[in-house]
Automatic annotation (TrEMBL):
InterPro entries: Peptidase_M4/M1_CTD_sf (IPR027268), Peptidase_M4_C_domain (IPR001570), Peptidase_M4_domain (IPR013856), Zinc_Metalloprotease_M4 (IPR050728). Pfam families: Peptidase_M4, Peptidase_M4_C. Gene3D superfamilies: 3.10.170.10, Neutral Protease Domain 2. Transmembrane segments: none annotated. This is Thermolysin metallopeptidase, catalytic domain. The lineage of its organism: Bacteria, Bacillati, Actinomycetota, Actinomycetes, Pseudonocardiales.
Amino acid sequence: MKRVYSVLGALSLLLLIPVPASAEPVGWLGGATSPGWVGTAAPAPGTRAPGTANGYYYPNAPISVSLTAGKYSLSDPGGSALFCGIQGNGPVTNTTGVFGSRSGTDLTTACADGYYAAQQFSGMLRDWLGRDGLDGKGKWAPMFVGLTAVNAYWNGHTANFGRTKDNARQLVNLEIIAHEFGHGVFQHTPGGFDGGVQTYQLNEASSDIMGALTEHYANNPNDPPDYLVANETNPLGRGPERVMYQPSLGPRDEPDCYKPNMNNIEVHDGAGPANHFFYLMAEGSSPVGKPASPICAGGPASVEGMGIRDAGRVWMRALMLKKPSWTYTDARVAALTAVKQVFPGDCAKFTTVRNAWNAVSVPAGTGEPTTC
Ligand SMILES: [Ca+2]
Ligand SMILES: [Ca+2]
Ligand SMILES: [Zn+2]
């Protein structure tokens, strides 16, 4: 079965995006076999130059672009293979280094927003999580805007971004870019991204987590950090699609708590308990100035948060302990092991991780660490 990893999932038949046979992952970048990308290789990087994204979401945002023979392009001068093009084309270029017109429908503007967001995600991975690129070895992947669908997806080697239902905006803000490329991180950590239903649910949650981390890292006043998914773009005109601090508040059928029948839940909806866990680990159950987060039956009286940056480090380390067919219980064991590795002897953080899992009803795993 071919799978795509989208931000919204199949909300209706119209939003089901089939992946052409040629789009099956065939390697890191895929080059000529990427859908819509007809080049034979990623463009050669030019000289690093400062540029400006004059985006719809991010007007006047600083970006780092490539300069070759008087032409600026939305292409990573570091040679990571990140570039932004409009479906079917190579990197957007111009002669000024200022990209976009602040229009919600112009696709060059969409690339400006998306490229800025990808660089922020890359910076977050590097500065907060100590990870160099999607694969941990400096590599990234191309992105394309202009998908004629109310969705965005990662196909294993490129990220593709569509538009809102009312066709007024493109789905290219920080969290959506980080969500799609976040699937590349999940893919390129041990165990890969194949497995059972819960593996795909955790993959979706991991991408939502990368989105929240990136919003907090960028801390852009035009997109204040939050734990809501698709609130900025409002793709279907019904507000956020997912609410990490209390998944059941969203418009979908997302559970707040892990249940024995997780395997019967759609993969984006099934991200709910893991998103909820991450919020509790980062912010706690009753953070000052932020939304309270409920605790499921049988959980602790409260959870004390450790802050999103440290929570991100625990999650990233847990991903490094991932194995094929990862389940919720496996993720619990991995996070408990991870917090001991990242913060040795820090009993408060260990307790936070255990309480957060207990607060979303994920059962203990065999042989999991029981003491800090
Ligand atoms: Ca935001
Ligand atoms: Ca958001
Ligand atoms: Zn996804």
